[in-house]
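Session log. Operator J.P. requested a structure for one protein chain; no other inputs attached. Running the standard single-chain path with token output.
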Amino acid sequence: MTFCRLNHNITAEGGVANNQPATNTASGKNKNEYRDNELDSIPPTRALFDLIKSGSITPDQKYKYIKMIDYVYTLMQGNKWKIAGVDTGGNFRHKVVTDPNDNWNKYQIALDGLYMAQPFFMELANALDDPSEPLSSSTALSSLNSSLIYEDIYNRMMWIDANFYNSIDKLYNHGWGSTRGVNGQYWLRAIGWYAAALADVITMMPEDYSTWRNDLIGVAEKMFEGMMGYQDSTTGMWRNVVNKGQTVVSTENPSIRSNENYLESSGTALIAYSMLKLYDEGLVGETYGKARLKAFNGTVVNELKYTVTGTSYLDRVYISSGVLTDPYRYLTNGYAANEAKGVGPLMMAACYANSVAVKLQKADPQITAPEANTLTYNGTGQELVTSGSVTGGTLYYALGEDASAPPTDEEFSGNDNTEPVSGENTGLCGRHPSPKEQMPVPTTSGTR
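Structure written below.
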């Protein structure tokens, strides 16, 4: 799933031909062209890995797609992405700009950049490990060491955790500057992008790197725990500035305020996607699955709307934001309907929502088995067993003729466990009807 509508062609040599008409008359550029100075242009390249593996493309197409991957990888090795003399854990500048007063030179690394870059590198490392699809068309790529790429990704993700997380608010800051530290603001979609990056990186990390994967799972769980503390109890969604109410006062000018810190669709959908995916893969617990299913359902119920003609649209997607230091400034760009950065994540979350709902509905019941009572015949009905119990289902009982042979499914009915004893070695069994799991058969014996 990609979110940037890039109007560019991949040339036969694997380069990018930006030949679309200009949409910005001032700059003379098309706003959707491939921009080689920012991380936001990378995600669509991930689709090329699937196309290469699909078997539905020609050899010439495969060649140029591999060259395009090579182009992006080589581009990201340039020094322009680094901050000279500063340890960033290998992380990249989000946007390379020349103006020293530009905010991207004040806060060079942004939380959302982790999703833009790191899953691409995971796709590349996975492709290098796949013997069925060698990247032989590119000498540069085929000579790469996938283990070193996995290590770089792990180090980048963990550096972000160490430097962006606020242990008091239990939230991740949006940006970090080499001379300023963190920006002190918690923008929902940025946190959502990091959450999605964690989900994709974790699920693509091979078993051989389970220690690193488990560390990243711990980071994800820490993030989810913090976010659950700010989750709207009614809708399951989160506000655009996570730790503020609907009204936000400017810290730069307390005389101005905004009443538009709404529950926001795109960031909520991204966090829902991350948690649903990790729960569906069996990597995190049920608590997170329930919280994220609530977030997904809340977004669908409250923000997926219909026009009078029956056309659907996703409402309240915040348009965009750079790294800022005033929470009020995160509310000045407005909200849009059907903006791609909201529709895409909601579709991604939808891929897992149904599966998670089924798993939560069919969670394994917790069963306490019934215990056989020692009975002496007295001519009246007696309890054959001390009743069992079940959480998440219904316990059924059946009488059997042989303690070593459980009754058939058809013999289970009702919940009555008071029957006259007849014969010897009578067996009684309790079960949960779905899934059909047979409980150990307790035995009773009586004398007439």
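Operator note: The longest strand covers residues 426-432.
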